[in-house]
Amino acid sequence: MKKIIFIASILVIWSYSGYAQQSSPSRAEIVKAGTTKKLAATDYSRIFLPGIEVSETQKAQVNKLILEFLNAKRALNAENRKTPGIYEQQQPTLFNNFKAKLAGVLSAEQMNAFLASKPATGEKTNMLRSIFY
Amino acid sequence: MKKIWIYYFLSIAIILSGCDRKSDLNIDGIPTDVRIAQALATYQQKLTDAPFGWIVTEYTNGTSTNGGVTRNGPKSVFSYYMKFDKNSQVSMLSDFNIGAATVFNNTSYRIKATQRPTLIFDTYSYVHLPCDPDPGVSNGPFGSGFGWGTDFEFAFADNVPAAELGDTIRLKGNLNHAEAIMVKATQAEQTMFNTNGFGSYSTFNKILQYFKRVNAGGTVFEITPGVGGRSFDIKTAGSQVITNVGCQYTATSIIFDKPVTIGSLAVKSLDNLVWNAGAGTISTNINGTTASTIVPAIAPLSPEPDVALNFYIEGLDNPWLTAPGFHVRGIDDAYNLRKLTFPGGTYFALVYFPGAINGGDYDALSPFFTGINDYPYLLAGGVAAASLDDDRLVLQMLYGGDPTPNPPDLIATNRIFNTGKTGPPYINPSPGFYIVRKSTDGVYDMVTAGDALGWITWAHQ
After folding, report:
1. For B159, phi and psi rounded to 5 degrees?
2. Which of B133, B151, B274, B457 could in theory staple to B283 by disulfide, Cβ–Cβ 3.0 to 4.6 A?
3. ipTM given for this complex
4. In this complex, is the C-beta atom of A34 within 8 Å of any C-beta atom belonging to chain B?
């Protein structure tokens, strides 16, 4: 009998602790999760390859490359907040690696069109700036 | 067998004695239900016997309850002028908004015995506005499903018989336990309410700018709205101390719920408010005596150093949220963002998420809809480029690449983000926004630096 009561008590405590852990996420957490999910699924080709026709196969590959690039850039930006200057130091390598991978997906003509879309240094509202600078 | 009959009759006797209708609760021969009816009638008579009506002030305790869930938030004070009649009708004014402050609302009430004798406002009235679970109605900061923590059913809380109630009656809300105090109005007060309504509320809100300055005996202090607009945040020149005070509006005065020390003055009230239309200022007497003027300002009196930068950094890992859109020229959520729709989604919040886009280069500044997986590249925008200019946050809305056009309300909202003003003529480059820390932890207001006529409140919840 004692064992039954003991086991029942354990089960009750366990079920309550499980319930407590299921507390609903905060509104900010909901938004963060939504952003992360969306950014992973975004069609970046429509933003960063404007006016360049890409096939569906290329689009999937380009989106994967850009997402990887932006995630690496996000990490570098975060690092730069701790170690100012590291972004300027490592960005060229990051971009060149990306460019090399992109050239393996796009045709020479598409690649030239992409490189020609590089915005001027002061063009801060051009979204393509995020790739080139 | 004899014993069985004895037990049988004994049982019948016990049962019958249990059914005796004679009640020990009778007092002076008056049954309970009659006494209750008499007491309720006396309560009603007390309410209707005030020939000039009642001034009712309701104080919340900083919590709001719905469906067994309680949320914490700012305390608030709401004021009413009420006139009860014998036909269970009550006409009232309220300081809830400009309309309610000046136009009488007629509604019904009941006095009912629940656990205690209770005053119930039983049809939708000004009393229900701050209780409304739709934040689009209550303008409350407690979130969807919650009002300000006010009540519309109040128990009489004086612990004296109804007949002994005097010119002041205390009430306690049955759900949120808000406290209300009813004070009999004088004939002069009734005349003022009938003529100008809650004149102090409508006069004070004639200054539409976010920043209002008052000279208190040589020391200037600044008033900005507390979270949700039901209190004041007060700062003095050169100080970063923010004092939050609840406000009770009367026909001619604004009374603080606690004195605020400004220089050598303990400011308790702003009295005799008079609007000077030509100058766009308000004349007043501090504490009823010290003559002063409330003037609008388009910049903070005592800007907090690096507040815009710190606001930006704090949002990098923790997005800023707001449910209502911009307050513009006296109108809350002027562009009805809470009513924003998108096929398949439900509006959740407007979100400012610094550094969320393009690996940290840009910010997400977009409505967030639950139920759809399309954020922040929703519609034709939602992306902002931010910069700092003299500790003001300057935003430029970018084309996010989605061909879906923005609805007009979002276009109007984005225009304010872009220009830092609520209307033309616009300034180039945009002056951006003052970021103002509020007395409530983790809450900031973003104020149009071009005219201080628009603002939006950001928090992480």
Report:
1. 55, 35
2. B274
3. 0.72
4. yes
